[in-house]
Amino acid sequence: MEIVWLIMFLASMCMCLFLISKVWFKWQTSPVIVTVPFPSVTICPQSKCKVSVYNFTDMNVNLDQIVPVYLHNTSSLNETMINELIKFYGMSQICDALDSTYYLGENYRYTDASIVENFLETSPDYDDVFFSCKLNGNYMLCPDLFDKVVTSEGICYTMNSLAASDILRTTRLQRDYPNRASPDVEVVLQEYHVRDKLCATLLDLVYIQHPADLPQSSLYYYAVLNSQVSSMALSFSILNSSDRLRSYDAEIRQCYFPDERYLKYFNIYTASNCMIECLSNITYQLCGCVNFYMPHSSSNRICTQYDDNCVQNARETMLHRESSQEDYVCHCLPSCNSVDYDAEILKTDFNLQKLIGTIDKIYKLPDKNELESYNYSKLEIYFKKPRFLSMRRSELFGIIDFLANCGGLLGLFLGFSFLSLMEIIYFVTLR
Question: In 152-301, which ranges are E strands?
Answer without folding.
Answer: 154-159, 185-192, 204-209, 222-224, 228-241
